[in-house]
């Protein structure tokens, strides 16, 4: 039985009656037009135009005039989007802090420095904009799944705050909450979060289902008429798990158990190729690796991006790190100088990424170094290697 007519649509209708803008994209297909969900592309998960319009409208001067500029609104959006080098929990905590208090550099209308900005108006909820969108596709290039499609996402001022996984309680789904949680989190994700083995997670998740399964061994031929449907689903979502596949097959008339479904998925699912890795060996003091790390707009009220200069010894992994507000040549050389002083001298060779302060152009045939950097390397007597483009 499909969740759409029994759960998704009634929920969207209820939200619409409460004043939400509900966007119903239907069911049974992968959305192909991002404009239908108020976006320019499927990699966006904030509704950009809604965010700009809503946040501008709730931040007014004393005489009721909006004062945020387009650039300030873009910077505020970037502060939410960019959470480098943070765990999921840390990123959520940082985003929540921004909802409670955000700042920009200045108010160009009143001249106030570092004014506080409301991303959500908690005091006057009616001034916010509320959207509910179902089948909200988000592309995830480079991941196991090419995209994820939550059943319903709830937005306040274009910011996604709630993901709804719709489940219907029927004889085929004895525990809807359990099924929803399992579909939202993979076994690997649960394993990492709880710091327990994946086999243990599978055993716990399967425990309540296997206790209810018939003691009669399932017959493989029961699944044969549905093999084409299974292949079609796997071609779109290779990592579809057995419980979710079982529910899809129920709507097609399948009455067998989950065991043969799981075995068939194991046979048909493509296995990712193992990536080759090259192990390098360095002698003490032979080499150091140098790179920049981007922390985005990490300083509240400061419109400049925060960067971290990193130099690490290849043998000992001893680390030097320095935060700066610029990656320009002057800042780069000052960081290099302080790093060499910290380590007590130069290595034989330093390994760099393709940063503009080091290399002007890099091709398989030739590397053109920045002459200012070359002069510094000669003065400090170290060689330079630039990583190949991949």
Number of domains: 3
User: What characteristic shape results from the CA principal axes?
Assistant: flat
Strand proportion, as a percent range, falls in 15-25%
Helix-residue proportion: 25-40%
Uncertain segments? 211-219
Strand order of the largest sheet: 11-10-9-12-15
Cα separation of the termini: 47 Å
- What integer value in Å does the Rg equal? 27 Å
Coarse structural class: alpha+beta
Q: Find the count of extended strands (DSSP E, 2+ residues).
A: 15
**What does the average pLDDT come to?**
84
The string of secondary-structure elements, in order, is HEHHHEEEEEEEHHHHHHEEEHEEEHE
Give the count of helical stretches.
Answer: 12
Largest sheet: 5 strands, mixed
Give a nutshell description of this structure.
With 390 residues, the protein is α+β, with helices and mostly antiparallel strands. Helices cover 35% and strands 16% of the residues. Helix 2 packs across helix 3 (70-81) and helix 9 crosses helix 10 (258-268).
Walk me through the structure.
The chain has 390 residues and is of the alpha+beta class. Helix content is 35%, strand content 16%. It has a five-stranded mixed β-sheet with strand order 11-10-9-12-15, covered by helices on one side. Strands 1-4-7-8 form a four-stranded mixed β-sheet, covered by helices on one side. It has a two-stranded antiparallel sheet with strand order 2-3. Strand 5 (138-139) and strand 6 (147-148) form a beta hairpin. Helix 2 (48-58) packs across helix 3 and helix 6 crosses helix 7 (198-210). The chain is flat and about 75 Å long. The two termini are 47 Å apart. 17% of the residues are buried.
């Amino acid at each position: 039985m499909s969740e759409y007519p029994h759960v998704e649509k009634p929920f969207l209708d209820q939200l619409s009656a409460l004043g939400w803008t509900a966007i119903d994209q239907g069911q049974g297909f992968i959305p192909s037009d991002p404009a239908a969900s108020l976006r320019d592309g499927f990699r966006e998960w904030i509704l950009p135009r809604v965010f700009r319009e809503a946040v501008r409208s709730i931040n007014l001067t004393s005489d009721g005039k909006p004062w945020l500029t387009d650039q300030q609104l873009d910077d505020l959006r970037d502060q939410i989007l960019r959470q480098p080098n943070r765990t999921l929990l840390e990123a959520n905590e940082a985003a929540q802090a921004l909802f409670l208090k955000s700042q920009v550099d200045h108010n160009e209308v009143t001249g106030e420095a570092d004014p506080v900005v409301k991303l959500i108006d908690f005091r006057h909820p009616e001034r916010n904009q509320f959207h509910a969108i179902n089948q909200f596709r988000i592309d995830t290039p480079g991941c196991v799944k090419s995209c994820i499609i939550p059943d319903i996402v709830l937005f306040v001022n274009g910011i996604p705050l709630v993901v709804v996984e719709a489940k219907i309680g029927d004889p085929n789904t004895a525990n809807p909450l359990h099924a929803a949680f399992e579909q939202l989190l993979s076994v690997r994700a649960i394993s990492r979060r709880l710091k327990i083995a994946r086999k243990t997670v599978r055993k716990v998740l399967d425990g309540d289902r296997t206790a209810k399964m018939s003691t009669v061994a399932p017959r493989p031929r029961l699944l044969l008429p549905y093999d084409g449907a299974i292949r079609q689903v796997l071609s779109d979502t290779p990592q579809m798990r057995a419980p979710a596949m079982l529910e899809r097959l129920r709507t097609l008339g399948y009455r067998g158990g989950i065991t043969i479904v799981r075995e068939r998925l194991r046979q048909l699912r493509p296995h990712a190729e193992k990536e080759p890795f090259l192990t390098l060996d360095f002698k003490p003091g032979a080499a150091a690796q140098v790179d920049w790390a981007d922390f985005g707009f990490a300083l509240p009220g400061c419109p400049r991006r925060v960067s971290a200069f990193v130099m690490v010894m290849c043998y000992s992994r001893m680390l030097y790190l320095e935060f700066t507000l610029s990656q320009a040549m002057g800042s780069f050389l000052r960081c290099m100088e302080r790093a060499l002083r910290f380590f007590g001298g130069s290595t034989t060779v330093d390994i760099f990424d393709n940063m503009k302060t080091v290399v002007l152009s890099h091709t398989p045939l030739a590397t053109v170094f920045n002459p200012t950097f070359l002069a510094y390397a000669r003065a400090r007597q170290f060689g330079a290697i630039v990583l190949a483009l991949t």
